[in-house]
Amino acid sequence: MSIVHVMDHPLIQHKVSLMRDKETGSKEFRELLSEISMLMAYEVTRDLPLKTVEIETPICRAQTQVIAGKKLAIVPILRAGLGMVDGIMKLVPAAKVGHIGLYRDPNTLEPVEYYCKLPADVEERELLVVDPMLATGGSASAAIGFIKKRGGKAIKLVCLIAAPEGVRRVQKDHPDVDIFVAAMDEKLNDHGYIIPGLGDAGDRLFGTR
Q1: What pLDDT band is residue 198 in, cutting at 50, 70 and 90?
Q2: 185, 205, 26, 7: CA torsion to nearest 10
Q3: Which residue in 24, 79, 86, 200 is the catalytic one?
Q4: Active site (annotated) includes residue 190
Q5: Catalytic residue among 24, 79, 104, 173
Q6: Residue 191: per-residue pLDDT
Q7: Count of CB atoms within 10 A of residue 92's CB?
Q8: Which listed residue, 4, 19, 84, 182, has the most CB atoms within 10 A of its CB?
Q9: Residue 54's beta-bridge partner residues?
Q10: What is the spatial distance between Cα 176 and Cα 178, in angstroms, rounded to a whole number?
């Protein structure tokens, strides 16, 4: 079973609270999402392997640690996932960025892929699938499935806010994918929105509400 990491750092919790406030406008919402994503990336990448190299400081030669060539890719689920990319790339600017777009079929209610562009060497990279909201888990689970079909293996799911229902769905479908969230909320309402949540992250991010 995958592990769920809930990040309770005070700065993250403070910024999530500001994002929940319905009076927070799109500009501040975007800035907060980027800042939280950067803070979360610090923990998500904690297990990257290191190697020892020799460098010369202004004083002497020294043995120091650098990341051992692990390749990263960020894969936002369109459209709200785009708001998390810049914050993560501030920490890992060499990361490649893929994109995956899904819509829900009005008849079957199942996620349908309409766009997927991943790095050519996707099977060699550690992939961070990002989406602010993990509600029912249907879109996240489908996106991970599409990525696996294209060769992706080392996958982590990074979300701002999650509902227990969404976590259970992803864990059931993808027990090999760890989940990182800034907040675990109470439940979903009858319309599939997270309670207390923060509304529609995409609309608030891009000002389309």
Answers
A1: very high
A2: 40
A3: 200
A4: no
A5: 104
A6: 86
A7: 19
A8: 84
A9: 63
A10: 7
Catalytic residue among 46, 61, 105, 108: 108
pLDDT at 109: 65
- To the query of whether residue 173 is one of the catalytic residues in this protein, the response is no
Encoded tokens for 51:
């190697």
> How far is residue 113's CA from residue 24's CA, in Å, rounded to a whole number?
32
Active site residue 203: yes
Token readout for 100 is 């995956």
Residue 104 is among the residues annotated as catalytic for this protein: yes
Catalytic residue among 20, 79, 86, 203: 203
Amino acid letter, 23 = E
Three-state DSSP at 154 gives strand
For 92-147, how does the pLDDT look when each residue is reduced to its tens digit (9 = 90+)?
Answer: 999 999 999 988 777 776 788 899 999 999 999 999 999 999 999 999 999 999 99
Find tokens 């993560």 and name the residue: 88
Radius of gyration of the chain (CA): 18
Closest to 12 measured CA to CA, from 20, 1, 4:
20
